[in-house]
Each structure stands twice: as structure tokens, then as C-alpha cells.
Amino acid sequence: MVAADEKPHAVCLPFPAQGHITPMMKLAKVLHSRGFHVTFVSTEYNHRRLVRSRGAAALAGQDPASLCYSTMTTCLPHFTRLLEELNRAPGLPPVTCVVADAAMGFAVDAAKEIGAPCALFWTASACGYMGYRHFRFFLDEGLSPLKDEEQLTNGFLDTPVARPPRGMSKHMRFRDFPSFIWTTDRGEILLNFLMHEVERADRAAAVIVNTFEELEQPALDAMRAILPAVYTIGPLGSLADQIVTDDAPASAIRPSLWREDHACLAWLDGREPHSVVFVNYGSITTMSRDKLAEFAWGLASCGYGFLWIVRPDLVRGDSAVLPREFLEATEGRGLLASWCEQEAVLRHQAVGAFLTHCGWNSTMESISAGVPMLCWPFFAEQQTNSRYSCAEWGIGVEVGGSVRREAVAATIREAMGGEQGKEMKRRAAEWMELSARSTRRGGRSLVNLDKLIAEVLLPSKKQV
């Protein structure tokens, strides 16, 4: 133990979206439990949402492109000033390191101004990172931008990649790369933002990834060939469970921007083991009213119980209202909620399959719980995660982008009770065991965490 003013001080800077805030908060809690003083940086907008989510529900939408443009163009001077003010604040130890989301690369420059190392936290998959690194290839080869929007629907995106991309699956099709590359506009904000951030990650002192070695070894090898030290510390939820005790002060902090419905777990308690399909499309995914209806009637006719997270802003430009006939047809068999404690739900024995958008937090939580996935990716590297889940790891099946109720129902039945579903469950159990082993005493992710702290985040010649 050291005096408060001698503690190492980590400033944690997440990208201001729920899917990035959640893993950064887990990492912040882990560092705090390892003896760090932690400053967790939030935007004023998200701070107000956090305050409201502890009371009345706060469900304001987020626009990814606007967030990316804003952080890239406006945040550097403000964050630099914050670090300088923290260094002058009475009673606080000086800032000794910055841990920033890899989408907030300006933090490397800000940390340099105060002489502190900056580690970037890539909160997505390693295969997703390599997918973004191939954007330059598609541009150089003239495959992107698209000649016209017809290429999105005429079969062009189903083209298999001629030779395996570096560090990636041999089963990749064009559609399996992060979605921002398939645009008709070379000036597309998200395309240029992601290229800018991934190609400058080598300026950081280290890159942290929420994955484990066995799951993504080829992609991690490719990352290590082009980046500084890469530390895998996943699954981060399992790692935090090992390190952050229930009585730790930080354990009660919850980063959800939505108010969670705790009735979900009580409802699951009354269901048979592996009898429920859990449906959650994450915090940003939106869909048309027609697709919402197709998913609904697919669930209605599949024959299984379901827990469906339906955010009020799930339908683009409209409120997410389900048909009265659907509610009547599924009465007593399904539960609708606006948000939930997803990790706890996935770990519940009643859950047999997970219909998901394939965000990386959801994918890692599903792997950690040993739950097979029904994959309906929305955007970004979710397409890559889906392909790996289905073609590489054997734990997923594609729902299909067109979304037809008959196909949804048939896919659920196969995953829950068919031969393919049995094989998916077997593979999911194997990956669950490997993921758990990585965060136990002596596991590689736990060892990597200690190496990250000792080699990058601690001031030289100082022990916690």
C-alpha cells in the first residue's frame, strides 16, 4: 500500500457510446482494484444520461458519425487541459498513465503533453481490427467506393475474397468486412474516421484488446506485426469478476445509459433450462417497422419462450410498437423489456440461444456464458464478428439480412433443438471453458493484465 498522493493515477477515456463505455468501466474497476487512483472521463451529455438512467428512463439516441467527427476534430485541447488540471488538483496523485479508447486516438497526443504513457483500448475484436486495416487495400484496388448503390443488393458483396486477407479467415466474403467500406462516398465520415484511427494506433505505448489468445490467434499475430505491444485481457467480464470483489467500492458503479429492467431475471427463474431465446440488438442498432414485425412473427411461431429487449428507439424514425395480435399470440410465453443486465441474463440456465447484432461485448459475453448465437449484424465490424462466429468458431448461424418470419422461426428451431444446434452448443461449451481458463489464476489474460500494468501503466521503479 502507498500513500494516496503516491498512487499511480490512470485516466480512462472511453468513446462516448454505450458499447465502448461498458468495457472501459470494467477495465477502470480492474485497475482500481489493482491499486490505481482512477479518473473516468465522461461527456456532459452522457453524464446527464447516466444521472437520468438511475431514475426515469433516458433513451436519447446517438449518431455514430456525428460522435466520431466531433471527437476527432474538437476533443484534443479539452482533454489536454483536463489532464493538466488533474495534475494541479490538490489531494490527487499526478496522472501517471492514460488508457483511452482506440477511437479516441487524440489522447496519445494529450498524454505526450504531460509526459505520460498512453495505452489504447481496442474494445472490438482483433479480427475486426484487421478488417479495418484492409480498407486501404479495397480503396487501392478500386473495389471501394462502390460504383452505385445497386452493388449493395446485386450479389457483389457475396463475392469471396480471392486469397485470405492477412491474419483473417479464409472464409471471408466482401460483406464480412466492416460495413463502412461499402459506400458510394469516398468522403464518408465513418470510413475515414476508422481508417484514421486504426492506422495511427502504432503511436501508442500499447494496445489492449478484450479477447483471449486461443480465440483470435492469427489476427493477434497480424496485429503484433504492425503495432507496439498488444495485451489481450479478455473476456473482460470474467476478468473483472476474478479481480473486483463484491465489497469493493467500485463494484456498485454501473455504467448503463439505460435504466435496466430487473424483472427479466425473475421471469427467467420460472422457465425450464435452455428453453428461452434471448433477443437483444444492442444500444445503437435500428431497423424498419417491417423488419421488427418479421422478427416478432418469427418469434411468435418458433414455439419457444423468448426474452426480447425492445428499445423505444429501435425502429428508425418511429417508436417501437409491436402489433396487438403479436402480444396476444405470445401471452405467457414471452417477456418484453427496454433494457436488462445482459451478462446476468446470458448466464442464466434458462437461456438456450442468443439472437444478437454481434457487437463485440455481446459476442464475448455469449462466449463466456457458452450460449450459441443467431447472428443478425447491423453495421461496423459486427459483420466480421458474425462471420467468425459462424464459419470459424462454430457457435453461430446467420439469420439473413432480409429477415423473413419463416426463416427466423426455422433458424431458432434449429439452434434450439436441431442437429446443427447441438453442435453449436458443444462448440460453445468448449469456447466457454477456454475463455474461463484464460482469466483464472495463471491464465494468459490474467498474466497479460499484470504485464500491462508493470510494463506500461506503472511509473518506472514504482510498485503499487
UniProtKB/TrEMBL annotation:
Keywords: Glycosyltransferase, Transferase. Its EC number is 2.4.1.-. It is an enzyme of class 2 (transferase). It holds the Pfam family Glyco_transf_N. Coiled coil: none annotated. Residues 11-55 form the Glycosyltransferase N-terminal domain. GO terms for molecular function: quercetin 3-O-glucosyltransferase activity; quercetin 7-O-glucosyltransferase activity. PANTHER family: GLUCOSYL/GLUCURONOSYL TRANSFERASES (PTHR11926), GLYCOSYLTRANSFERASE (PTHR11926:SF1071). Belongs to the UDP-glycosyltransferase family. This is Glycosyltransferase. It comes from Oryza brachyantha (malo sina). The lineage of its organism: Eukaryota, Viridiplantae, Streptophyta, Embryophyta, Tracheophyta.
